[in-house]
């Protein structure tokens, strides 16, 4: 009898800084972008990472993602918290405004099979100004890639499926 791994399950975690989600469903970038929009935000930065069709000269047919969900969702939340405290304000924004340098953040990562051309990660960040939004978006992306307990498996055209190896999500 084969059981699917209980560790790679869907999860959603909301914290004051934003939302983290792991899902087997296709990601909806427009919905994620709308989730961070706010009247106090003058900017929304977005990163959409998609499955590309090649890697080091090989034709990629699809990616597969698994996560140690309980730990990965906590790690993603820690990254959002760190982004909110470490991204500094623009020079033209004073602390008198009462608005934080980041308004809302969202990071959604897909699990399971992700076909070529489809998003595997969507990050959206709203901020009063563009600089903070861009910096935070990249900070969150690099943090998730380096720290979150998510692994990917690449499948290549012409290779046996059992030859596909699990890799760190870089």
TrEMBL record:
What Pfam families does UniProt report for this protein, alphabetically?
MoaE
InterPro entries xref list: MoaE_sf, Mopterin_biosynth_MoaE
Q: Which GO terms describe its biological process?
A: Mo-molybdopterin cofactor biosynthetic process
Q: Which PANTHER family match?
A: MOLYBDOPTERIN SYNTHASE RELATED (PTHR23404)
Q: What is this protein called?
A: Molybdenum cofactor synthesis 2
